Hints:
26% of the residues lie in helices and 40% in strands. With 197 residues, it is α+β, with helices and mostly antiparallel strands. It has one domain: Aminopeptidase (3-Layer(aba) Sandwich). It has a 7-stranded mixed sheet with strand order 1-2-3-4-5-7-6, with helices on both faces. α4 links the parallel β4 (117-125) and β5.
Amino acid sequence: xxxxxxxxxxxxFPNKSFQKYTDVIIKQIESCEKKTFxxxxxxxxxEEVSKRTNTLLIAYYEQDIQxxxxxxxxxxxxxPNDHQRKRANKPNMTITKEIIVVGYIIYSNISxxxxxxxxxxKLCVHHSFRRxxxxxxxxRNVLERMDVPKRSKADLHVDVERTVAINxxxxxxxxxxxxxxxxxxVGRDAWLMEFIN
Length: 197
């Protein structure tokens, strides 16, 4: 994967402009998910995205791919001459666009009697694109979209052992509220963190 930081864009997915890439994008997200999280934490991405309360943002870049295609097919009814044979075998280069997902965030809107809550369900950045501020950019994008803290609260759960993730959340403005014992499985606790401006 090779892209410059300034070539990476963030958008809501699915959307009409990426309709023909949907399956490829979902596969990329699932692959990143499996490589990053333990098996019991891997999400059924397609299922999560289809829920009305959930939203998926992807960080991606576009890459042009050159493909060869034969320019002319030989007719089987007549015997081709040398010139026709050379033309038929000459490759024609076509360029197609490919979408490469390098990070994503899934969040949910939860109604509340007081103020709606934006819950961060999953944040993941491809290992080759870490430490360039992409996770922070995805988080801040969600907070801005959901108008946190003016119109919505925000919270998340994070494994108490994931210090890199915890530090990122703190940097963005989340604070540890409480420890939830055995949240992920027996022996694996989580911090509940809330965004505090």
